[in-house]
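So, can you check this one?
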Amino acid sequence: MSKGAVLAGRLADLPLGASHAPGIEKRVVFSPGNHWGDYVARHFRVDAGVTTPFHSHPWPHYMFILAGRCKGTIDGAVHQLEGGCWAFVPPDVEHSFENTGDSAFEFICIVPPEGDPEAAN
C-alpha cells in the first residue's frame, strides 16, 4: 500500500459525481481506481419526494439501504424499503425508487465497472 492512501473517511466528504436527476446525489466510495478492482460502490442520497427515473441496463445492482424510506419498483413488483433493508436488481430489469419519507433516502449501490464508467477508471 502506498503512503498517503486514503483508507477511511466520511461519505459526505467524497466528491459529488454526475447527477442522475434533480434531488439525487451520487458519490463513488470504492472503484477500480480506488481500493476495489472488480466493482464500483456508490452512495446515493435521494431527497424527500424525489423518484429515480425508471430505467434498465445489462448489469445488476446490489443495494444496501442506509436511511430513510422508499417504494422500490423492480420488474413491476413493489417493495417497501427502509434503513436496514437490501435489494437486488437483476440485469435488464426495469426499476425505480421513490422516496416516500420526509427525509433523505440513502443507499449504497454496487455495480460492475461497466455500470458506472465515470468511476471505473
About this structure: Residues 14-46+53-66+84-95 form one domain.
